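Structure (tokenized):
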């Protein structure tokens, strides 16, 4: 590999690394689709020893965005506002970061496409130096714009503001993903995973709601309580337990199933070892 190829290989690795975002364990994310709507997202990895969850942000900073909801210091989730107010919060977060994300996309494309093309075509020419100058100008603009938006959203976090401004002006991969730092702020994060799943319309959100509702019914140590489901979703007609999918036989020898995880069993087993030895229910 040439020096230029090695440089861009390192740059690509740093950029992909900056797409990984960490949050407290028990956090969940919501990712905007390219056209319309949101998708519920689980962590790509859970670091139990460190108490962290790792999420993969969209690979391009624009037009997609993502947001993370996390448990409080006590480990419990706090519901703030209704479904419509959380929708407005996500829209405000998108509007507040739209220009930063567009500049970040411009920098990403310019750095990984335009600059290599100009260098291959012109070598160490004034045109190549002009391209490099444009990249640094974009980095400074992204850093300054982030500084202004961050000051309005989190005025007390002065140290973080100056730190990210310094990193944005010196590290291209950091400026390309700088809008993610705003989405990680608690004031721009949705309030509760149940609301987050209700905002989404993908298969993962439906499975998440159904599985956690069954655990609330049958497990002593469930993530959410039946009162949370009723207050946040059921009372507002956002979730109906009657619409949950039933258990299906996975084979001819299956005679019963677990009412919590819907795992099917043969006649030789009468309790589910995965769900606190819950008694199985026979198929009709």
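Design, position by position:
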């Amino acid at each position: 590999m040439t020096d230029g190829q090695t440089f861009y290989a390192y740059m690509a690795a740093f950029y992909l690394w900056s797409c990984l975002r960490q949050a407290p364990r028990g956090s969940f994310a919501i990712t905007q689709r390219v056209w319309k709507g949101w998708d519920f997202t689980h962590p790509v990895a859970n670091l139990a020893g460190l108490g962290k969850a790792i999420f993969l942000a969209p690979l391009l900073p624009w037009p997609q965005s993502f947001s993370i909801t996390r448990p409080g210091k006590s480990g419990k989730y706090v519901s703030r506002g209704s479904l419509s107010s959380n929708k407005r919060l996500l829209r405000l977060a998108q509007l507040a970061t739209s220009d930063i994300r567009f500049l970040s996309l411009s920098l990403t494309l310019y750095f990984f496409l335009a600059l290599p093309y100009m260098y291959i075509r012109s070598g160490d020419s004034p045109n190549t130096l002009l391209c490099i100058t444009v990249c640094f100008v974009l980095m400074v603009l992204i850093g300054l714009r982030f500084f202004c938006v961050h000051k309005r959203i989190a005025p007390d976090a002065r140290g973080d503001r100056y730190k990210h401004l310094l990193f944005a002006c010196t590290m291209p991969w950091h400026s390309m993903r700088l809008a993610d730092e705003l989405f990680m702020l608690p004031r721009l994060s949705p309030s509760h995973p149940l609301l987050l799943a209700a905002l989404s319309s993908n298969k993962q959100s439906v499975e998440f709601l159904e599985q956690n509702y069954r655990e609330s019914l049958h497990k002593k140590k469930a993530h959410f309580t039946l009162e949370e489901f009723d207050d946040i979703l059921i009372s507002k007609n956002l979730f109906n337990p009657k619409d949950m999918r039933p258990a299906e036989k996975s084979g001819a020898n299956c005679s019963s199933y677990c009412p919590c995880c819907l795992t099917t069993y043969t006649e030789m087993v009468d309790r589910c070892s995965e769900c606190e030895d819950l008694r199985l229910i026979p198929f009709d």
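Reviewer-requested clarification: The CA atoms of residues 67 and 183 lie 5 Å apart. The longest strand covers residues 20-24.
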